[in-house]
Amino acid sequence: MSSGLPLGVPKRQPETEHFWNATAQGRLLLPRCDDCDSVFWYPRGICPFCSSLRLSWVEASGRGRIYSWTWNTRGEGDFSGVGPYAIGYVELEEGPRLMTNFIDVEPSQLAVDLPVTVVFEDTGEGSSLLRFRPA
Questions:
Q1: Distance between CA atoms of 58 and 80, rounded to whole angstroms?
Q2: Residue 79 falls within a domain, yes or no?
Q3: Paired sense of beta strands 115-122 and 63-72, if any
Q4: Confidence class of residue 6 from pLDDT cuts 50, 70 and 90?
Q5: Which of 26, 50, 53, 31 is nearest to 41 (CA)?
Q6: Model-level pTM?
Q7: Domain that holds residue 126
Q8: Is the residue at 67 inside a domain?
Q9: Would 3 be classed as within a structural domain?
Q10: Terminus-to-terminus CA distance in the chain, angstroms?
Q11: What would the 3-class secondary structure string for the chain be?
């Protein structure tokens, strides 16, 4: 699957290695605190809610709703000259919100609370980027 959007290869850190390996398998993993049970985004080595270092990974459903969005007509850097594209935040069923691109959707279809589902776009470098499309 190719959205036509740039595919920057993510920089791997020890805290994100499990996440990126899972994306290459078409799985969305989220970090969860073993002490306060919070699920959060972005992967890091410490819970942002209680500062615990006891973390594990849970498989997410890949479903969520658009929290906010914009239709961008002028990109910079890798997105320069790409043309109009949609970017915004998805609130996952598990709670965290993450920034992403929306694909396979016209501007008139985008709306807050629109149900969406994850799509994994292979970078060709052992990871996939998350994109979302209407469910």
A1: 35
A2: yes
A3: antiparallel
A4: low
A5: 31
A6: 0.89
A7: 17-134
A8: yes
A9: no
A10: 16
A11: CCCCCCCCCCCCCCCCHHHHHHHHCCCCEEEEECCCCCECCCCCCCCCCCCCCCEEEEECCCEEEEEEEEEECCCCHHHCCCCCEEEEEEEECCCCEEEEEECCCCHHHCCCCCEEEEEEEECCCCCEEEEEEEC
Please give the single-letter amino acid code of residue 125. E
Token digits of residue 13? 């850190």
pLDDT tens-digit profile of 85-121?
899 999 999 999 999 999 999 888 999 999 999 999 9
Place of tokens 């595919």: 7
Residue tagged 């969406």 (tokens): 116
CATH number for position 55: 2.40.50.840
**86, two tokens:** 């949609």
Number of domains observed in the structure of the chain: 1
Q: Does residue 129 lie within any of the structural domains?
A: yes
pLDDT score for 10: 78
